[in-house]
TrEMBL record:
Coiled-coil residue windows: none
Record bears the keyword Glycoprotein: no
GO CC annotation: plasma membrane
Name of the protein in its database record: ABC transporter permease
Organism lineage string: Bacteria, Bacillati, Bacillota, Clostridia, Lachnospirales
Superkingdom in the source lineage: Bacteria
Keywords from the named record: Cell membrane, Membrane, Transmembrane, Transmembrane helix
Keyword Zinc recorded: no
Similarity comment text for this entry: Belongs to the ABC-4 integral membrane protein family.
Entry membrane topology: Multi-pass membrane protein
Membrane-spanning parts: 14-36, 284-309, 330-355, 378-402, 423-442, 471-495, 515-533, 791-813, 845-875, 895-914
Principal localisation: membrane
Organism: Agathobacter rectalis
GO molecular function, one term: transmembrane transporter activity
Length: 929
């Protein structure tokens, strides 16, 4: 039996090889899913932890415990530290991650203190920090005579106006009253590396603590009548060891820690919560993006398997006539499909691994790179998916055999001449599906703002929103098949009397087989339309993201300088402050060195109050610029229609340059306060937050000299998340003033340095810690969501080209083989070869060219209808630049070129087959049948 099956496969080796290719691709795409899911999940985790560190300015994987212990239970510092170390050990027994660092701090409430030079009524806490000598540098030191020596931070020195060698007189309770203890400031220290994971609490966070040695701390405990000692313990873990496999387990353990110990806390669970939400979105996105491609491969496999089954109908009837049961025939073909599925499974696993790695390496549509894709590795779930896909293929290929295994040859002959209209055409399934797709599109378009907010809140996306375009393409393909049949009937009825014999035979064939040939048309339309949509969707997503990033940055690169804030407490209780400006000359020298074409200061403040008449606006966005330098440096990225502003933005800079006290304002600010060009307004600024959260220190009157919709670096819409993680949209109001005027009226405050790089130069030629548009674009391209989308659209487009070309060529070659007898009869009746070719060309026009053109039209229509909607997933924020649809001519030419080659090759092959066809052989074939 097995040898018989092998011989059957060999007899139709080319068809079976094509079937094997389809099965292998189907399994490969199936196998991609778990590898892509796990790889993208690990990438998301790494990105979330990194973003948390950047945004919150803290180590992203930290466990902590803060509280107090009774001095009676823990009489010295070491007993407290041992207890804290016990907690750390218990945590890491369950959350099995390597320790990066640990910071333990114990303190005693010092109380009121007098300083030798600074005056009375300061408050200090006595603390012991075991890692202080290892992780901090001594900036200044001086010995003096006092009871105890202590160390303070630079922040404490600046805030209280202390100096090295100064004495602090601390009034501490000793059980019988207050006792004065003197400390001499022997050292002033600062962090060796403030970015070291050890500094969970920085020295600035411990501004009222005077640090002492462990011996001094233990001695101080004897003086105090306090019942409790305060502590804080921070354990930093290696977040790189948290992955998709253990994230859920560790999250459960940390929830148990919190339930069992109310003093326990961590910053990991919030990150994992966001990860679980995004992981669910990734899963849905992957299935939604894979499903259309899987359907396309199923159509391809169905087409090939149907051709094989059609050629083997006689073999099945012979087996049945010789006594084989339907079950025996079914088992025979089950073995045949099992062999193909097994081979496809082996090839599919290897091919799926390669495809997934290739898709993960993309940073744009059809753009493969050599970037690090180490998170995308082989996972054991790929084997399970491969087996499941293989079983699906075996059933899909074998089940139709049962229907073909009829008892009598007469039944098969009656079936052959049957002209039943397909069920979908009878029930108008195409119209129903098209109406459903239109309804879903209408409904989703009405909910755009709600959908955008749900994406920003990291809630799961609705996969139907992505699949609706595939539903539209499929329904439109069925409708085109219906219309093509009607066109064939109409042309035949109108011109039937004028047809030549060859043309009459051609239309007769089209009418007889239009229901059977409809499958090819649906396949071609879905392939072409899907390829066009995938290309346009990927291009639109990438192009809009890049343009928005370039607009938001406003120039090539930005460097945020470190300004030192000096705060002085005056004797009358008031506070004086000033910023020390760094040397700006080092940036101006970049122009002389040919690295930058333009460099400028841009002072930015997002805590500005603006008033005009009876109206006022809070938290407006101030930009102070040098108009000439800013014009040479900044860039305003326009949208596709170049309609952000009514005129070129240089015109507005010229108006500002004419008015030293003038300002440029945004159109939404003008509307909110009822302002127009020439009106006056007043804007106020607050003291630095380190000094006071809510104190205005200066105001300035200004004249409105221009009103703009867009300006370099100005994002009109912002989004804020409340405690319940609900996102709300807010508008930002812009006011642009002259830099010299702002510094004169408000004093020196921090600014950023904007740079326009010379041609061929990159940020690596300047500093490594710059913010540049290109860096942000690269980071965005490497985000998991964008990477998955680019990768899957690229794979879908390439598979569409391959499957369409092979399927189209194979279908027509096999059709020609099946009609060999018919062509032989036509030739025997006197039909010339030229007429046979004309007949086939006419059939190709209706069965191939029209579907290809319809596919192109449907693909463009799907692009126009669905791209902006689906872009919400990737671009949920409102922006000064709207979402524009991008269609790259190169993508359309690639698709058209491949299809043209496929059609040309098909026509050449058909011509050669016709020339090699022997009339006598065809006629003998007819006699034998």
């Amino acid at each position: 039996m097995f040898g018989f099956v092998i011989n059957k496969l060999k007899n139709r080796k080319w068809l079976n090889l094509c079937l094997l290719m389809g099965v292998a691709l189907f399994i490969a795409l199936f196998v991609c899913h778990p590898m892509f899911e796990k790889g993208a999940g690990n990438q998301i985790l790494d990105r979330l932890f990194t973003d948390h560190a950047t945004q919150q300015n803290e180590f992203p994987a930290r466990m902590s415990r803060e509280g107090t212990y009774a001095v009676a239970d823990y009489p010295d510092s070491q007993s407290v530290l041992d207890k804290l170390s016990g907690y750390e050990k218990k945590w890491t027994e369950y959350v099995d991650i390597n320790k990066v660092s640990s910071q333990q701090l114990i303190t005693l409430p010092g109380g009121r203190a007098d300083t030798e030079f600074g005056g009375p009524n300061n408050y200090f806490t006595i603390g012991y920090l075991p890692g202080l000598s290892e992780y901090a540098d001594v900036v200044k030191s001086q010995t003096g005579t006092a009871t105890f020596e202590c160390c303070i931070s630079e922040k404490t020195m600046d805030h209280y106006g202390l100096v090295a060698g100064e004495k602090i007189y601390l009034h501490v309770p000793d059980g019988s009253g207050k006792k004065e203890i003197s400390f001499v400031i022997s050292q002033i220290c600062s962090e060796k590396d403030i970015n070291d994971p050890y500094w969970a609490k920085t020295l600035s966070d411990m501004g009222d603590v005077i640090f002492v040695s462990q011996d001094v701390f233990d001695e101080m405990m004897q003086y105090y009548s306090e019942d409790n000692i305060s502590y804080s313990d921070f354990l930093m873990l290696d977040y790189r060891q948290i992955n998709t496999e253990n994230a859920s387990l560790y999250d459960g353990y940390m929830e148990q820690f919190k339930d069992a110990d109310k003093l326990y806390n961590d910053n990991i669970r919030d990150t994992l919560e966001r990860f679980f939400t995004q992981q669910k979105t990734i899963k849905l996105m992957l299935w939604a993006l894979e499903l259309p491609c899987l359907v396309l491969l199923i159509l391809f496999i169905r087409m090939i398997s149907a051709q094989i089954l059609s050629l083997e109908e006689n073999d099945i009837l012979v087996l049945r006539s010789r006594g084989a049961t339907k079950l025996q025939v079914f088992i025979l073909y089950l073995q045949q499909s099992g062999i193909i599925a097994f081979a496809g499974c082996v090839l599919g696993i290897v091919l799926g691994y390669i495809m997934c790695r290739a898709a993960a390496s993309t940073d744009g549509f059809l753009r493969f790179t050599a970037k690090d894709i180490g998170t995308y590795r082989f996972v054991w779930q790929m084997l399970v998916y491969a087996v499941a896909a293989a079983v699906i293929m075996v059933l899909f290929i074998t089940v139709p055999v049962w229907k073909k295994s009829k008892d009598a040859i007469s039944e098969r002959r009656r079936e052959r001449i049957s002209k039943k209209k397909p069920l979908w055409e009878k029930c108008f399934i195409d119209v129903i599906l098209l109406a459903l797709s239109a309804y879903l599109l209408y409904n989703y378009n009405k909910q755009k703002s709600t959908l955008a907010i749900s994406v920003l809140e990291n809630r799961s996306i609705d996969p139907v929103m992505i699949l609706d375009n595939s539903l539209f393409i499929f329904a439109a393909a069925l409708l085109c098949v219906r219309l093509t049949g009607l066109i064939i009937l109409l042309v035949d009825r109108l011109f039937k009397k004028h047809f030549s014999p060859a043309m009459y035979a051609s239309f007769l064939q089209l009418k007889r087989t239009r229901y059977n040939q409809g499958f090819l048309a649906v396949f071609l339309i879905m392939t072409v339309a899907g390829g066009i949509f995938d290309a346009n969707m990927a291009r639109t997503m990438n192009s809009n993201m890049e343009k928005r990033i370039v607009y938001n940055v406003g120039c090539d690169a930005i460097y945020n300088e470190d300004f030192r804030l000096r705060i002085q407490k005056n004797k009358d209780g008031s506070v004086s402050w000033m910023y020390d400006e760094p040397d700006f000359g080092k940036y101006e020298s970049l122009k002389n060195e040919g690295i930058c074409d333009g460099v400028t200061r841009v002072l930015e403040d997002e805590r500005v109050d603006i008033s005009a008449g009876s109206g006022s606006i809070s938290d407006a966005y101030l930009m102070a610029i040098n108009t000439k330098e800013f014009g040479e440096t900044a860039k305003l990225q326009s949208d596709q229609n170049d309609d952000i502003n009514d005129a070129h933005w240089f015109n507005y800079l010229n108006e500002l340059a004419k008015e030293p006290d003038g300002v440029i304002i945004s159109s939404n600010l003008a509307k909110a306060l009822g302002l127009k060009v020439g009106d006056s307004l007043n804007y106020s600024r607050y003291v630095p937050e380190a000094v006071d959260d809510d104190q205005i220190y200066a105001s300035e009157n200004a004249k409105v000299c221009a009103i703009v919709k867009g300006f370099p670096g100005y994002e009109r819409y912002t989004y804020e998340t409340d405690a319940d993680k609900n996102v709300t949209e807010q508008e930002k109001y812009l006011i642009v003033a002259n830099y010299a005027t702002v510094v004169e009226k408000f004093g020196m405050t921090p600014y950023s340095v904007w740079m326009n790089l010379s041609k061929g130069k990159t940020v690596d030629d300047i500093y490594k810690n710059l913010t540049s548009a290109q860096q942000l674009i690269d980071e965005n391209k490497n985000s998991a969501t964008v990477q998955i989308t680019n990768g899957m659209f690229t794979l879908s487009f390439i598979l569409s080209l391959i499957v369409c070309s092979v399927g189209f060529l194979l279908y027509w070659v096999m059709t020609l083989k099946q009609r060999e007898l018919q062509f032989g009869i036509y030739r025997a009746m006197g039909m010339r070869m030229r007429e046979v070719k004309a007949m086939l060309l006419n059939e190709q026009i209706f069965l191939s060219f029209l579907p290809l053109l319809a596919g192109a039209g449907i693909g463009i229509a799907a692009t126009a209808m669905f791209v902006r909607l689906i872009s919400i997933i990737y671009l949920p924020q409102k922006h000064n630049i709207g979402v524009n649809v991008y269609i790259y001519q190169s993508d359309m030419l690639e698709l058209a070129g491949v299809l043209f080659v496929a059609v040309a090759v098909c026509y050449v092959v058909i011509s050669r087959l016709l020339k090699s066809m022997k009339i006598a052989q065809a006629l003998r074939l007819g006699e034998d049948s």
